[in-house]
Design brief:
The chain is an alpha/beta fold and 482 residues long. The chain has helices spanning 42-61, 64-80, 82-93, 97-118, 154-167, 182-194, 208-217, 230-240, 265-277, 297-309, 329-344, 381-384, 400-408, 423-432, 465-471, and strands at 8-10, 13-15, 22-27, 32-38, 126-129, 133-141, 144-148, 171-175, 201-203, 223-227, 246-250, 256-259, 289-293, 348-351, 355-356, 367-368, 371-374, 391-397, 412-413, 415-419, 437-440, 455-456, 459-460, 473-481. It has 2 domains: 2-251 and 458-481, Aldehyde Dehydrogenase, Chain A, domain 1 (3-Layer(aba) Sandwich), CATH 3.40.605; 255-447, Aldehyde Dehydrogenase, Chain A, domain 2. Bound molecules: ligand TXE.
């Protein structure tokens, strides 16, 4: 078995797993195995940690300017290989090539470049005790840190984690999802070419419950940055907390989208198609619960259904495709399970929700037509649980108070969207909605300097800007008496 073997990147070399075992890696567009990934375990993680420990003193000591130079070279190479990376991302995840080209890969480059430059401006405080002493705060890198990322935005979220960690002077043991390892593998080759010193970044591929768990359990890994499901986040926290590790958990969402009658209708409905079905709804920030003020409920519903039906589902490599394949057979089954549940809970599926067979070579792919449902109570499972697929539910509301109660009526609190021309109302709701991110008359407009993360079961901590650099450093107060 030689074709398309993904390798671990440990101590600056590309190697198979110690076990010599391989896991199948599927192409979601046709359901075929197209590559293999190392079935890594604690032995591989141990080797990665040793390499990271060895690399830490020179990497943390080489200075921000040098780290900026090398990280910027990595970003340059990502830019140069944007098309190769986009093709690989779509092959691995099933997402439409247009999404890989316009979202995933450009944002991966931006993540690296942003933190390569942010570290040049990262300062800290000092506190003056007049006539007595001066205090200054050092923000020092932690050492060896762990980064575990999911399958929905593979290179985008992988780089979102490793970039601040590396910029701050840490060395990293990282594990991408076993469902979408390819672009992280291609990134390891880019790191070699960019001259990233051996052991600064180590990528260990494999199962969450084996390689991932070994990273979480390793005593020398002092901080963990994780993005994934809330259930998995709970497991990680239970393992890491008694070991006093720093934890950043970006978990699931069940995000509300509030559409008031005084909104800019065209902007609201066209953006809502995107916020509902971008990346097949496999973005933790998608607005899957859409609440519409009653006077425009039917008009908005009918227009949203019309535009949803017009979305092209099929070959991820066709430029005209809007909705590629879902990431795995199991995930499509999970999403279809929720559609069956929606009907059982009394909902009406207004469009979509059917598996699609594009025929020919794509016959075995995991395609699903995007679905809109109505007639479900806010408290039912369909409206309470994260589906993470191309499924949204609609509900009317009459007052601002009711809209807020509906929006806040779930255990999640990641992002929210508000469509209204009444800026006072938008600000009132933004202040009271239980979410870490509020978009007003827009969606997924991202400034990387802003705090990113959620409340309640959507996670712990914030990523982005100085929040991320503070997470990946330890603050030390030094008090100097005159
Ligand atoms: O995530 P997991 P999955 C949600 C979404 C999705 C659900 C499960 O609802 O359906 O989570 O998706 C690694 N110790 N989101 O299964 O399991 C795993 O290998 C250490 C929302 O992909 O959380 C992968 O690298 N690591 C989310 C990563 O954790 C473990 C995006 C995520 O896998 C582990 C993705 C363990 N015990 C899914 N078990 C978002 N917020 O964007 C798994 N992993």
């Amino acid at each position: 078995m030689t074709e398309q073997q993904v390798k671990n990147y440990i101590g600056g070399t590309l190697v198979p797993a110690h076990s010599g075992l391989w896991l199948d890696n599927y192409n979601p567009s046709n359901g075929q195995v197209y590559s293999y990934i190392p079935d890594s375990n604690a032995e591989d993680v141990q080797q990665a940690v040793e390499a990271a420990e060895k690399a830490f003193p020179p990497w943390s000591g080489c200075g921000a300017q040098e780290r900026y130079r090398i990280m910027n070279s990595i970003a340059d190479l990502i830019a140069e290989r944007r098309e190769e990376l986009a093709q690989a991302e779509s092959m691995d995840s099933g997402k439409a090539i247009g999404t890989s080209r316009s979202v995933d890969i450009p944002r991966a480059e931006a993540n690296i470049r942003f933190f390569a430059t942010a570290i040049l401006h990262f300062g800290s405080e000092s506190h003056h005790m007049e006539g007595v002493a001066v205090n200054y705060t050092l923000r020092q890198p932690i050492g060896v840190v762990g980064c575990i990322s999911p399958w929905n935005l593979p290179l985008y979220l992988f780089t979102w984690k490793i970039a601040p960690a590396l910029a701050a002077g840490n060395c990293v043991v990282a594990k991408p999802s076993e469902l979408t390892p390819m672009t992280a593998f291609l990134l390891s080759k880019i790191c070699l070419e960019a001259g990233l010193p051996p052991g600064v970044l180590n990528i260990v591929h494999g199962l969450g419950s084996k390689a991932g768990q070994a990273i979480v359990e390793h005593p020398k890994i002092k901080a963990l940055s994780f993005t994934g499901g809330t259930a998995t986040g709970r497991i990680l926290a239970a393992t890491a907390a008694p070991m006093f590790k720093k934890l950043s958990l970006e978990l699931g969402g069940k995000n509300p989208n509030l559409v008031f009658a005084d909104c800019d209708f065209e902007k609201a409905v066209s953006t809502t198609v995107r916020s509902s079905f971008a990346n097949n709804g496999q973005i933790c920030l998608c607005g899957s619960r859409i609440y519409i003020e009653r006077p425009i409920y039917e008009k908005f519903r009918d227009e949203l259904v019309r535009r949803t039906k017009a979305l092209k589902v099929g070959d991820p490599f066709d430029d005209k495709t809007d909705q590629g394949a879902l990431v795995s057979k199991q995930h499509r089954e999970k999403v279809m399970g929720y559609l069956a549940l929606a009907k059982k809970e009394g909902g009406t599926i207004l469009c979509g929700g059917e598996p699609i067979d594009p025929g020919g070579a794509l016959s075995g792919g995991y395609y699903l037509s995007p679905a809109v449902a109505e007639g479900l109570p806010n408290t039912c499972r369909t409206n309470q649980e994260e589906i993470f697929g191309p499924v949204v539910t609609l509900q009317p509301f009459d007052t601002e108070e009711e809209a807020l109660a509906l929006a806040n009526g779930v255990v999640y609190g990641l992002s929210s969207t508000i469509w209204t021309s009444d800026i006072g109302r938008a600000s009132r709701i933004a202040g009271r909605i239980q979410a870490g991110i509020v978009w007003i008359n827009c969606w997924l407009l991202r400034d990387l300097r802003t705090p990113f993360g959620g409340v309640k079961n959507s996670g712990v901590g914030r990523e982005g800007g100085t929040e991320a650099l503070r997470f990946f450093t330890e603050a030390k107060n030094v008090c100097v008496r005159y």
